[in-house]
Amino acid sequence: MVKIVDAPEGVEGHGFFATSLDKVIGMARANSLWPLPFATSCCGIEFMATMGSNYDLGRFGSERLSFSPRQADLLMVMGTIAKKMGPVLKQVYDQMAEPKWVIAVGACASSGGIFDTYSVLQGIDKIIPVDVYVPGCPPRPEQIIEGVMKIQELAKHESLRRRNSDEYKKMLESYNIETI
Ligand code: SF4
Prior knowledge:
Layout: E1 11-13, E2 16-18, H1 21-30, E3 35-39, H2 42-51, E4 74-78, H3 86-95, E5 101-105, H4 106-111, E6 132-134, H5 141-157, H6 166-174
Parallel strand pairs: 3-4, 4-5, 5-6
Antiparallel strand pairs: 1-2
The chain binds iron/sulfur cluster.
């Protein structure tokens, strides 16, 4: 069964419907998030289950995975990130076009998890901004879906000007990420 998403808030009458541009764009963005799975270890396996027919991330318009950062707007980091890998992850983030969102999936991506050691990054938010953290070691597919739904809410309600705001630019600068 094909489920049509609800129309955004607006004014409706006989033969017409009016709403604002940012609501329409928010609806489109939220229902067509293209994930880039940056999977390095066991949490990646849970993501594979999330993509499978039982959980089917395609129900949320996110079945089109991108392994090129330039055609993705949702970076999903799943697994242990060694410090050596940090610059690679940052480069992938840099290459994604705005607007973009990031989910740290599982304890390792969120905080280093059980690997409190010299070689492991203690959370990807040390190098890139994170929008949603999914707890668990590993998280179940339902939790990963919940994380994607949280991103959908952010995308739906994000102001069109947010990415140009001083606040957003300052946040990126705090990560030494160049703004255009
Ligand atoms: S959080 Fe647990 S399951 Fe996920 S990558 Fe780390 S050790 Fe593996």
